[in-house]
Amino acid sequence: ALDLARRRVGIEGELFDVVSFEIEREITGDQPWRDVFVNVRAHAALQVQGGHFRLPFSLDANTGATSLDFASRSLAARALAPGRDPGAMLH
Questions:
Q1: What does pTM read for this prediction?
Q2: Are strands 46-54 and 33-43 parallel, antiparallel or unpaired?
Q3: Where are the alpha helices (DSSP H) in 1-91?
Q4: For residue 23, which of 15, 12, 14 has the smallest C-alpha distance?
Q5: pLDDT averaged over the chain?
Q6: Does residue 32 contact residue 48 with C-beta atoms inside 8 Å?
Q7: What percent of the chain is predicted at pLDDT more than 90?
Q8: CB 16 within 8 A of CB 4
């Protein structure tokens, strides 16, 4: 995906319906890496995600800009959501 308005480039994919990944980088800026993570579906009810990502807060915060109906995310999602950090989560 290429988002020129936000000066960002990224790739996402899925392997064998078990492993999904996303790599997204700002072309300019102080913090170039946005999301770099791997998600493994260990079981139908358990997934493990590790890397550098934003914690889930709302649906529009976790949806890529090219997949949203509107150009901007909601004000609440931008103002209240935690930032991106390295880590792991079970979900």
A1: 0.63
A2: antiparallel
A3: 75-80
A4: 12
A5: 79
A6: no
A7: 34
A8: no
